[in-house]
Design brief:
217 residues, alpha+beta, Gyrase A, domain 2, 2 domains, six-stranded mixed sheet, five-stranded antiparallel sheet, 14 strands, 34% strand
C-alpha cells in the first residue's frame, strides 16, 4: 500500500516561491529555498518565515484537566513532556485546555479513569514560524497583543488574533534566537502567510526552509 504523505495548506505557495521539498516524518516539507547558508544568515540577523505545519497537534480538554493530565504547566506556559523519543511541547491554553505539539504522532499519557476529550488538530491547522532578531518588530505590526519579552518570554503561549484572524502564538526560541509559531485554521493559512510577508517586507523578511530552524544549512 502506498504511503500517504501530508501537505500543509502552504504547499503550492512554497513551490511557487522555489522551495525544495523533502519528505520528513510523513510530510512533504519545504526544506530550503536554494541557499541554506544565506537563509541561516537571515535567521541570525533579520527576520524569516517558515512553514512549520509538519507537526502533530492534539488538543486536550477537560473540566479538571490537572487531575486528568498530571504535571501540566501553568496557564500560558509551555513545557516539554516525556515522550521516550522526540520532545513534545505542552502549551497550556486555558484552565480547561492544553495543546500538545510533537514531531511525530503519539498518545497522551492519561491518568486512570480520566474523563475528557482529545481532538487531533493536525490536519486542521497551519503553523507559520516567525524567527530572527527582528521577528518582534514583525509581530508587533500584525497583532495588538503584547509580544515583548516581559509579556511573552520564551516558552509562553497566548490566544489572540494575528492579521485579524484567530490565532495561537507560541514563543519557542531556537538556536538561541527569538522565534514564534503562529497557529491558525488551515483555510486561512495562505492568507496569514501573505499577510506576514507583506508586513515583513519593510524589514527584509524572507521565506526559509524548515531545516534552517533545526540548525541544518
Amino acid at each position: 500500500m502506498a504511503t500517504v504523505l501530508r501537505r500543509s495548506a502552504l504547499h503550492h505557495r512554497l513551490l511557487a516561491a522555489g522551495a525544495s521539498i523533502r519528505t520528513v516524518g510523513g510530510w512533504e516539507r519545504a526544506d530550503s529555498f536554494g541557499d541554506g547558508q544565506a537563509e541561516a544568515r537571515e535567521l541570525r540577523t533579520g527576520v524569516v518565515l517558515a512553514d512549520a505545519s509538519a507537526q502533530h497537534l492534539l488538543l486536550a480538554q477537560a473540566d479538571d484537566l490537572g487531575s486528568w493530565l498530571p504535571s501540566l504547566p501553568s496557564m500560558g506556559e509551555v513545557a516539554l513532556v516525556a515522550n521516550g523519543g522526540s520532545p513534545v511541547r505542552c502549551c497550556r491554553l486555558t484552565r480547561d485546555s492544553a495543546l500538545f505539539v510533537s514531531a511525530s504522532p503519539w498518545a497522551l499519557p492519561l491518568a486512570p479513569g480520566a474523563c475528557g476529550h482529545v481532538t487531533d488538530l493536525t490536519s486542521g491547522r497551519t503553523i507559520v514560524a516567525v524567527a530572527g532578531p527582528r521577528s518582534l518588530d514583525l509581530l508587533r505590526a500584525v497583532t495588538q497583543v503584547d509580544v515583548r519579552d516581559r509579556a511573552l518570554p520564551d516558552r509562553r503561549c497566548v490566544q489572540t488574533s494575528v492579521a485579524r484572524v484567530a490565532a495561537t502564538i507560541i514563543r519557542y526560541d531556537r538556536l538561541g534566537i527569538r522565534a514564534y509559531e503562529i497557529l491558525v485554521a488551515r483555510d486561512v493559512g495562505e492568507y496569514l502567510w501573505d499577510a506576514l510577508l507583506d508586513a515583513g517586507e519593510p524589514l527584509g523578511a524572507r521565506p526559509v526552509g524548515a531545516a534552517v530552524l533545526e540548525g541544518r544549512d
